[in-house]
Amino acid sequence: MRALILGGTSEGRELAALMSARGWLVTSSLAGRVASPRLPVGEVRIGGFGGPAGLARWLIDQEVEVVVDATHPFAERISISAAEATRATGVPLIALHRPAWEPVARDKWRMVDTMEEAARITERDYHHILLTIGRQQLAPFAHDDLNLYVIRCVDRPDAPLPARHRVILDRGPFTVAAEKKLMRDNQIDCVVTKNSGGEHTRPKLDAARELGIDVVMVRRPELPGGGRITVVHTAEAAFNAAMEL
Ligand code: NAP
């Protein structure tokens, strides 16, 4: 069987390993945003397809039998592309998206729908803000000249950035103890994060709870669903769904 995994996540890499070990011909596709990405096993292609039509052509040319959308829950456009291209070609689509984080007792979360809303809150209510939102959506925070922003991401972010900022280049994995130290050392009073879900970046939420720090949590966008898309939450479930096709 020949599968295309739209990746860029740990679940995508896990699934590529599972499928390859069972003899599937797997191509993982990455957007090319990160300078030296963690690579999955099997074949890898890097770069966009040119929208839904380009992806549909690729699926036909490569005789793909199943597409797994294992992209990050905030990667909206590629998920829409996957839904449209598979609808047009009739190739089955499995959407592998890790469950969202849910607050537990003593969490102090403020839920927002957009990064602009998050920026309005941090500018008004906080002073030392930890941004763990990647480097593509920093612009809404850039005009705040008063407060300090600690920006943690994998690759160096481009301007515009807030006047007072510190950049920490790190891709984890992170521990609760290290996250608490980072927050204490920088006198953080607010953490901004997308509701990415998963275990790898959860320690920042545990650290914030233990230190009594507020979290501004950006809700997930609606991703395409529908009768012809099988939605699963783990690599193993995606593998089982693919085996049943
Ligand atoms: P996006 O806004 O949904 O995608 C923008 C464009 O990038 C797409 O239209 C597509 O170009 C191309 N693209 C995205 N993912 C691709 C993939 N896996 N393979 C080939 N082309 C891809 O995506 P994004 O938010 O920039 O995220 C890019 C990648 O980073 C995703 O693969 C995602 O899994 C990973 N990632 C994203 C986040 C996040 O917070 N957004 C966090 C961690 C990892 P064409 O239209 O030309 O095909």
UniProtKB/TrEMBL annotation:
| Record EC number | 1.3.1.106
Tell me if Nucleotide-binding is a UniProt keyword of this record.
Answer: no
Please state the pathway this protein functions in, per its UniProt record: Cofactor biosynthesis; adenosylcobalamin biosynthesis
Listed InterPro entries: Precorrin-6x_reduct
Task: Keyword check for Oxidoreductase, yes or no.
Answer: yes
Tell me the superkingdom of the source. Answer: Bacteria
Gene Ontology MF, one:
precorrin-6A reductase activity
Please provide the record's keywords in A-Z order: Cobalamin biosynthesis, Oxidoreductase
Which Pfam families does its entry note? CbiJ
PANTHER family according to UniProt: COBALT-PRECORRIN-6A REDUCTASE
Listed NCBIfam families? precor6x_red (TIGR00715), PRK08057.1-2 (NF005968)
Instruction: Spell out the protein name for this chain.
Output: Cobalt-precorrin-6A reductase
Write the lineage as a comma-separated list: Bacteria, Bacillati, Actinomycetota, Actinomycetes, Mycobacteriales
